[in-house]
Amino acid sequence: MSNIITIDGPSGAGKSTIARLTALRLGLSYLDTGAMYRAVTLHCMRKGVRLDDPKAVAGTLADLDLRVELTLEGPMRVFLGAEEVTEKIRTPEVTRNIHYVADVMQVRNLLVEQQRKIGEQGDLVTEGRDQGTLVFPRASLKIYMFATPEVRARRRHAELKQRGIDSSYEEVLEDVSKRDYLDMGRELGGLRKALDAVEIDTSSMSPDEVAEAIVKLAKARLKMQTRKIDKSALEKAREEIERRKQGQ
Ligand code: C5P
């Protein structure tokens, strides 16, 4: 059986950055399940169906051709048919609409099945909301990562400010709380901590510190070895993670 490390938690806890860094350090592939929900959202938007109609959303799945390509060094690549949509799924419109699509049972069932198939193919760091609870309940190591809503809102507010986007801290905090409410309230695949997950509060830790803590746990529990990574690969990954955050 493959060694699976799951990382779940609310938006803004730093999951993507940390999952990428952890996967790089351990030489594992990285599965970004949020990107899969984003790709289905883009597919539905392009079909022009009413996103608040679950039947219409489910109806678009018949001709969904979603493929992901895991890479060791780079980010996961996402394709709809022959078209690469890795960057196109990171727009604010997709982010705004995603909750409609993530609520639809048929969408979740389909993506959970795809994620499990990927997990059968080899060792993996996988990141999302339901990875340790629903998708990989027998994962080798489960992490539940969180930070207070105030810290997550402060991080997001600073990011927006850096991009020259005017918003008040209160607005951002409200948005963070709304996303938590939607993610936690979802009946199937909602955000919950698995009973056997290790909790990490990232409120006062840097992404590198958190990744280091997970790598230590993986080495102790799974007898995994870190691999020597070339500094430029790590730097490149960091830069690209930053660039992506700016786009969302
Ligand atoms: O991780 P990311 O912010 O890209 O995820 C976007 C959205 O996709 C989340 O807010 C959540 O609604 C949904 N999602 C999910 N289940 C997952 C991963 C993401 O419902 N496993």
- How many DSSP H or I helices? 10
Shape: globular
Task: Count structural domains.
Answer: 2
CATH level 4 superfamily of the largest domain = P-loop containing nucleotide triphosphate hydrolases
State the major sheet. Answer: 5 strands, parallel
How much helix is in the residues?
40-55%
Order of helices and strands: EHEHHEEEHHEHEHHEHH
Return the CATH topology of the largest domain.
Rossmann fold
Q: Uncertain segments of ≥5 residues (pLDDT<50)?
A: none
Strand order of the largest sheet: 2-6-1-7-8
> Architecture of the largest domain in CATH?
3-Layer(aba) Sandwich
Radius of gyration: 17 Å
Give the structure's gist in a few sentences.
With 248 residues, the chain is an alpha/beta fold.
Question: What do these coordinates show?
Answer:
- It is a single chain.
- This protein is of the alpha/beta class and 248 residues long.
- It folds into two domains: 108 residues, Rossmann fold; 94 residues, Rossmann fold (3-Layer(aba) Sandwich).
- 52% of the residues lie in helices and 14% in strands.
- It has ten helices and eight strands.
- The protein has a five-stranded parallel sheet. Strands 3-4-5 form a three-stranded antiparallel sheet, with helices on one face.
- Helix 1 packs across helix 9 and helix 7 crosses helix 8.
- The model has no long low-confidence stretch (mean pLDDT 90).
Which tags fit this structure?
Rossmann fold, 2 domains, 52% helix, globular, binds cytidine-5'-monophosphate
Write the layout of secondary structure elements.
Elements: E1 4-8, H1 15-26, E2 29-32, H2 33-47, H3 54-59, E3 66-69, E4 77-80, E5 83-84, H4 92-102, H5 105-120, E6 124-128, H6 131-135, E7 141-146, H7 149-162, H8 169-185, E8 198-201, H9 207-222, H10 231-247
Parallel strand pairs: 1-6, 1-7, 2-6, 7-8
Antiparallel strand pairs: 3-4, 4-5
Helix pairs in contact: 1-9, 1-10, 2-4, 2-5, 7-8
The structure holds cytidine-5'-monophosphate (C5P).
Cytidine-5'-monophosphate is lined by residues 11, 33-34, 37-38, 98-99, 102, 128-130, 179, 183, 189.
